[in-house]
């Protein structure tokens, strides 16, 4: 599985997980002028922007460690740009990270970090 295929598999798994725990996935892979938002979803009345990080090994650290302070600043700017163009009905806004670890046996582990930014 290539890195791009792994990323797509992780994002599909993330979307399925979110729907299973009660989120409504509104959009995936939202392309904006300055970047991309992986998943936009509603968690009740909270508009949630989800960054998905998928890894095969922990050699470079846990997947969520890739969401650095600089990445969070970039995500906040992307959220602002998204809200200028499209704003589904919501009460609150939140940024989450979904960390996906692909095991060698083909299974995945998912960790959902809420309100990271």
TrEMBL record:
SUPFAM superfamilies: Restriction endonuclease-like (SSF52980). CDD domains: PoNe_Nuclease (cd20736). Pfam families: UPF0102. Signal peptide: none annotated. Coiled coil: none annotated. HAMAP family: UPF0102 (MF_00048). NCBIfam families: PRK12497.3-3 (NF009154). Belongs to the UPF0102 family. This is UPF0102 protein IOE58_05440.
């Amino acid at each position: 599985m290539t890195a791009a295929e792994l990323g797509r598999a992780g994002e599909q798994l993330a979307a399925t997980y979110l729907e299973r725990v009660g989120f409504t996935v509104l959009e995936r892979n939202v392309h904006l002028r300055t970047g991309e938002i992986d998943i936009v979803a509603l968690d009740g009345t909270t508009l949630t922007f989800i960054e998905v990080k998928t890894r095969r090994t922990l050699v470079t650290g846990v997947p969520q460690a890739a969401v650095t302070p600089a990445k969070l600043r970039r995500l906040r700017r992307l959220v602002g740009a998204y809200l200028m163009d499209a704003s589904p009905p919501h009460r609150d806004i939140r940024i989450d990270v979904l960390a996906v670890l692909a095991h060698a046996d083909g299974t995945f582990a998912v960790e959902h970090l809420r309100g990271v930014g």
